[in-house]
Specification:
The protein is mainly beta. The chain is built from two helices and ten strands; from the N terminus they run βββαββββββαβ. Bound molecules: zinc ion (ZN).
């Protein structure tokens, strides 16, 4: 299990899975957040604490930020189409020693929608 928390520690997550990699995405929001996403099926992730959410465009995803300190712990799928829909938590909120154990893959979410490695 990987755990993470925002800066003020009001929001916590538990990620009950083993990530094969973490995704650094260059899309319009991920590049601004500087997030490293790790994905899992929704039931394998638990997030607690006060957040505000942000969605735009087709509103298929909502990015959640702590409503006290502003860190972004996760995004949720607003249009889950399959029973095994996924969500993601931001590995940047985990212990730095944990972050170094996970391979980073760069994803071209801005253009080709493919990994760049
Ligand atoms: Zn916070």
């Amino acid at each position: 299990m990987i755990t993470g928390s925002c800066h003020c520690e009001a929001v916590h997550y538990e990620y009950n899975h083993t990530p094969r990699w973490t995704t650094s995405c260059n899309c319009s929001i991920c590049r601004r957040l500087g997030a490293l996403w790790i994905y899992a099926k929704v039931p394998l992730i638990k997030v607690t604490g006060p957040t505000i959410s942000y969605a735009w465009g087709e509103k298929s995803l909502a990015f959640h930020s702590c409503n006290i300190c502003g860190c972004t712990p996760h995004w949720e799928n607003l249009k889950p189409t399959e029973p095994d829909a996924r969500m993601a938590v931001n590995l940047r909120l985990a212990d730095p020693e944990v972050i170094t154990t996970v391979r980073v893959r760069h994803f071209d979410g801005a253009d080709t929608w493919a990994f760049l490695d």
